[in-house]
Design brief:
elongated, five-stranded mixed β-sheet, 442 residues, alpha+beta
Length: 442
């Protein structure tokens, strides 16, 4: 019977009991009292055995399901004597055990990642009307000298500045700066960003704290590295040939007599050195121009008229390259800007568009504008191929250029000018066209 399924074993037991009851009734009819009593005793034993069988059968179900509910997967049913009878139940247990082990592994990895991030991370979980600490990474705990507590009230006792701000905002999403005294030192400014989310009927509140000084230092370091790469590249391009030519001249002047060919070599070397020196001087002048951008002298200027004047200045070049201009600004807008500096911006962007339209049959530049939320947006769109994804993050880098004759400061200078005006310069890289967007405050 051990090889039978549990329902087959139960059916056989019930069948035996029914047969036994029939036999006892038959014997009792024949007035065989002692025999009937003996058979009744056997039936009682069979009933007791079936009770224990059913109890044990359901006990395995109860224990397994209780283990699943309690997430206790320490048992191993692979060699259980009733493996065949409970194959699907044990398989379910095994699948859930594997899933839990995978989730634990993922949790360990996620926590390891969060603990190695130099940003304070605090995650709250809502339970009924209260919040508990779901996760606090190591940086948050060590940097702000806060123990890893589990209750919001305990955290509030340790970190009242943060908790009061969150409570006053009603645990809503927030992005602001916060002054925090760290390790009894002077107060530091942190960027605080929060978000609130729901998943599987659970509500979470995520708090991120990042030091402004650290963000600034990171950006400055990246900017300096990129700038030094460009400067060193440009300097080497000039100094390497100058050094090589100087060595050649040094060897020539050491000779007792000079041939006509040697004199020609010397003349050519000097001319080349002068050209490279001029290029190097232009490069330094370009750098000085970027570094010493004057403060904008703002006056009230009508923007569409200023753009029209810039188009007139560039008209010979547009005509030479057969470029069509569409000016789609129908409204007059007066803004306080430095007309001379803004003229530089438009001419730089027009020049970029001319270069982008080389070797294109359709040569079109569209200039449009719109006012929105106390800002005035000017868009300059050309029908070129757009900006390659490989150089998208470099186009505003000083001295970066894809043109042989370019200085690589046009976009950087334009960006600096607009930022000095309280605006910004951005671009949209769409298919078969590029749009540079100028934003100015009204």
């Amino acid at each position: 019977m051990k090889s039978f399924k549990i329902y087959n074993q139960l059916f056989i037991r019930i069948l035996l009991l029914l047969t036994g009851f029939g036999i006892v009734f038959f014997i009792y009819q024949k007035e065989l009292v002692y025999t009937a009593l003996f058979c009744s005793l056997i039936l009682i034993l069979l009933l007791i055995e079936m009770y224990h069988y059913i109890k044990n059968a359901f006990l395995i179900y109860d224990k397994t399901i209780a283990s699943i509910l309690e997430k206790d997967f320490s048992s191993d049913f692979s060699k259980h004597k009733s493996q065949d009878n409970y194959a699907k139940l044990f398989k379910l247990y095994s699948v859930l055990k594997t899933n839990q082990n995978e989730e634990i592994s993922k949790d360990i990895i996620y926590q390891s990642i969060l603990n190695n991030i130099d940003t304070g991370i605090l995650i709250l979980q809502k339970q009924e009307e209260n919040w508990i600490i779901f996760l606090m990474n190591d940086y948050f705990s060590s940097h702000f000298n806060v123990p890893k507590v589990s209750k919001w009230k305990y955290l509030k006792n340790q970190f009242p500045t943060l908790c009061d701000l969150i409570e006053s905002n009603g645990f809503d999403e927030l992005k602001t700066t916060l002054q925090i005294r760290v390790n009894s030192e002077d107060s530091q400014t942190f960027v605080m960003q929060t978000s609130r989310t729901k998943t599987y009927n659970q509500e979470y509140y995520v708090v991120l704290l990042d030091s402004i000084q650290k963000v600034i230092e990171k950006k400055e370091k990246e900017a300096w590295i990129n700038l030094m790469k460009v400067i060193s590249h440009e300097l080497l391009n000039s100094l390497t040939p100058i050094r090589s030519l100087s060595q050649n001249l040094h060897e020539l002047v050491q000779q007792e007599s000079l041939s006509t060919e040697d004199l020609d070599d010397m003349k050519q070397s000097v001319v080349t050195m002068l050209n490279r020196s001029d290029h190097l001087q232009q490069f330094v002048e370009s750098y000085r121009k970027l570094a010493m951008l004057p403060t904008p002298q703002k006056t009230k200027v009508e923007i569409s008229a200023l753009i029209q004047d810039c188009i007139e200045i560039m008209k010979p070049l547009f005509k030479q390259h057969k470029i069509e201009i569409q000016l789609e600004i129908n409204q007059k807008r007066w803004l306080y800007v430095d007309a001379y500096q803004m003229e530089q911006v438009f001419i730089n962007l027009f020049t970029n568009s001319i270069f982008a339209l080389e070797n294109h049959e359709k040569k079109l530049i569209i200039i449009s504008a719109e006012a929105k939320e106390k800002r005035f947006f000017i868009k300059i769109t050309d029908s070129g191929n757009g900006i390659d994804t490989e150089i998208e993050d470099k186009i505003f880098l000083p001295f970066f250029t894809t043109r042989k004759e370019g200085a690589g400061i046009g976009l950087t200078l334009s960006k600096n000018i607009l930022e000095a005006h309280g605006g910004y310069l951005a671009y949209q890289n769409n298919e078969a066209q590029t749009t540079f967007m100028i934003c100015l405050m009204e």
